[in-house]
Amino acid sequence: QVQLVESGGGSVQAGGSLTLSCTTSGYTYNTYWGWFRQAPGKEREGVATIDTSDGVTYYTDSVKGRFTISQDNAKKTLYLRMNSLKPEDTAMYYCAQQSPYSALVGSPLDVARYDYWGQGTQVTVSS
Fold first, then answer.
1. What confidence tens digit (pLDDT) does each residue in 87-96 have?
2. Cα dihedral 103→67→63→18 (10° resolution)
3. Which listed site, 43, 45, 96, 101, has its alpha carbon 20 to 30 Å from 36?
4. Cα–Cα distance, 64 to 77 (Å, whole number)
């Protein structure tokens, strides 16, 4: 069973920055790996994901130009650099990974594509 461990969440003021980290016990290649978030009363949504086979990245429109996803294979870690944070970015952030052995479902930002999930790290942005 793949384990994903997130870290780096916290409380910041609007306009500030945070970097989230996710370490995997599983795969660093031939898999989709990404960040999702869920605010209270809302559905979980894809924020940023990466196709580790070719490095292509995907972002939801609301974070384009502000967030950057990257990976360090040597450390088996995925990062999410978040700049210019807004109060609407407040949510629990989850790391997720698709199994290389499972069929691809939906788009790279779809929750349904992902097989393994971390416990989440809270990000709170105050105005």
1. 999 999 999 9
2. 110
3. 101
4. 21
